[in-house]
Amino acid sequence: MTQVQARKSLGQNWLIDDGLVRRIVQAAEIGPDDVVIEIGAGTGALTRHLVGSSARVIAIELDGRLLEYLPVHPNLTVIQADALQLDYAAIAGLLPGQQVCFVGNLPYYITSALVRKMLESDLPTRTVVITVQLEVALRMVAEPGSLSILAVSIQYYGTPVLLFRLPASAFRPQPSVDSAVVRIVPHKQKSAVSPERFFEVVRAGFSQPRKQLRNPLSAGLSISKSEADAVLHWAGINPMRRAETLSVSEWEALTLAHIQKTSGEDRI
């Protein structure tokens, strides 16, 4: 194992348990014709297993110090770049019929942004398998009653499942919390509601999460409380409910109601 020093500014914690690395690769269920995009290759622990599992692996790593530790393999393309800034569709270079698997051990401080970017890439994505902070993983897979804006954001695009936990001792340097592996399978059919309109309503609803929905919707969407009540009624949602209790399908219904009641649009 390399002795290169991790950079706290990049949120670097490298998985050093080879058995757990193998479990992550198995969880991705990579087909021989898939293209794997690995986010944050680090010192290559996961990369070395991925290159034997698919037609092509694209490993993205921002830290130039680590590139020399990545394997040399005909199936592997290494890109030194910020994963938040890349155009994934452009680098994938998919052939007809190919699908993408995203895999990665994500830095805690940009987890949400990275997951959204993967799911919004418009690539034919078969699965996303990521290692995240345990607390974040639990929020991703939460059910109505304890949903957060993160959970709604993930579940709008796909179905997340917490596969297994990873102890802090499995990483170097050792973080202060445990992690977990989450698999997200994108929905086969896209939502009838555009993400721009959907998240406009969701952000408004969660802007005051402890208050009944009529209040944050009124403030966040710049409509009166009576108009907020009408939109909620149109969507079949009790105005006294709170944001954390709504399912993704209810948020979609609420967005459609907002469009129809306030904009006079017949379609999205």
Structural notes for this entry:
The protein is α/β, with parallel strands linked by helices and 268 residues long. It folds into two domains: 8-186, 3-Layer(aba) Sandwich (Rossmann fold), CATH 3.40.50; 195-263, Helicase, Ruva Protein, domain 3, CATH 1.10.8. Helix content is 34%, strand content 19%. It contains ten helices and nine strands. The strands form two sheets. Strands 4-3-2-5-6-9-7 form a seven-stranded mixed beta sheet, with helices on both faces. It has a two-stranded antiparallel sheet with strand order 1-8. Strand 2 (35-39), helix 2 (47-50) and strand 3 form a beta-alpha-beta unit. Helix 7 (195-206) crosses helix 10 (248-263). The longest helix is centred in the last third of the chain and has 16 residues, at 248-263. The radius of gyration is 20 Å and the shape is elongated. The chain starts with 13 loop residues before the first strand and ends in a 5-residue tail after the last helix. The model has no long low-confidence stretch (mean pLDDT 90).
